[in-house]
Amino acid sequence: MKKEIVIGVVLLTAVLLFIVSKPIINGQSGNDMNKIVVLETSKGNVEVQLDNVNAPITTANFLRYVNEGFYNGTIFHRVMPGFMAQGGGFTPNGTEKQTHEAIKLESNNGLKNKRGTIAMARTSVPDSATSQFFINAVDNSFLDYAHGNDGYAVFGSVTKGMEVVDSILSVKTGDRGSFSDWPLQDIVIKGAYVKK
Questions:
Q1: Model-level pTM?
Q2: Distances from the Cα of 150 to the Cαs of 23, 39, 64, 161, in angstroms?
Q3: Distance of alpha carbon 167 from the chain centroid
Q4: Do residue 169 and residue 75 come from a single domain?
Q5: Is residue 102 domain-shared with residue 162, that is, in the same domain?
Q6: Are residues 19 and 52 in the same domain?
Q7: Residues 17 and 71 in one domain
Q8: For 86-125, what is each residue's pLDDT tens digit?
């Protein structure tokens, strides 16, 4: 009888430890995985769940800028209905912010540029993404990695506030210097932070 009780206690302890423990995947604890970042914009809040498992480099890069307060006071400077809304690099007066070094492109990670996903903007050079990101307005399969197409790295998706993104996508835009599709009224990212 005592032996059965001891075995029962051991099994119960093991189950409890399993429940409360945080899984470790790719060197990241459960606490660090799939964090949600809140983008407080002048149009409302957008919540984005990050995919640290499939896009660890890109996610870490984005979180670095978030945690440094880099995005606070930046704008969505390129808005194209039926395509995407891009931000995270310019202030309202058109000044481009100084960034960290560019990161390695993680477009070949199985994630697709579907409506509501967030991806890194870059130049024609694959490994050139820094701080700028975009949110897909529709499924943009031509932005996905494929043979002969470097693609754009998706690293998360909007879980709340897609109506805010749609509101951003509906604003009037025009030319500003060498830029086109610049919103005529500033759409400011007032703050960006990891949701507790």
A1: 0.84
A2: 32, 28, 24, 29
A3: 19
A4: yes
A5: yes
A6: no
A7: no
A8: 999 999 999 999 999 999 999 999 999 999 999 999 999 9
